[in-house]
Amino acid sequence: MIVLLLVIIRLSIYKFTAGESIERDEIIAATTWKLQQEGYKKEDISSIKSRYDFMTGVLPYKYDSEVIFKDESEARYYYGWNDKNKNFVNQSGYSGDAKKHKK
Description:
Blueprint lengths: L1 H17 L2 H17 L7 E8 L10 E7 L6 E6 L7 E7 L8
Antiparallel strand pairs: 1-2, 2-3, 3-4
């Protein structure tokens, strides 16, 4: 019984700190689609990963994605939902020495 309780607590903490996997997958898919619409190819991208911030507020704004381009590996570009209905994503920010891919 104690083991089951510990497993439930562990899963709850993980979900609270890491977020929902479906939401993370959705923001990555939407970001990938947006980048394709902007003319980027798979070869242009070094990585795309989802980020989750439980302190941000309401869904879906707790989720965004971080994109690293191969030609600007020290910069990070962030994409997030444009509204709570998750219609599409926009570039919401950047960090590092971002120059080439700012929108």
